[in-house]
Design brief:
With 122 residues, the protein is an alpha+beta fold. It is built from 3 helices and 10 strands; from the N terminus they run αβαββββββββαβ. The strands form 3 sheets. Strands 6, 7, 8, 9 and 10 form a 5-stranded antiparallel sheet that branches. A 3-stranded antiparallel sheet has the order 1-3-2, covered by helices on one side. A two-stranded antiparallel ribbon has the order 4-5.
Length: 122
Amino acid sequence: MLTKIKNAQAVKKENVKVNYSKINESILKILSSGGYIDGFEKKGQGIKRILDIKLKYENNAGAINEIKLISKPSRHIYMGYKEIKLVKRGYGLMVISTPSGIMNGKDARKMKVGGEALFEIW
């Protein structure tokens, strides 16, 4: 999903459609609250559900500069709450999968929960 968003933003598309999953939905909520996308909608029913993502542009450039995947299927990186650091001196966002759900790094540090670091975005 993240690669689709990045590639669509590179060619100046307005919307991107991705398959629905609860993980994708919770990641999109974090990206929306962080100001990296304008919003998203759930469409369809049953198996044919999709997420329609509205991309955000600032000064004719995409709001997302880079996405760095931390954990991959071949290598999972886990962090305690003390190991979670700021991304790009606070201008970026780290997304972490914790026992309390998927959240950004700042909230995970506040709640003192660690988990699997998924990706960084700035």
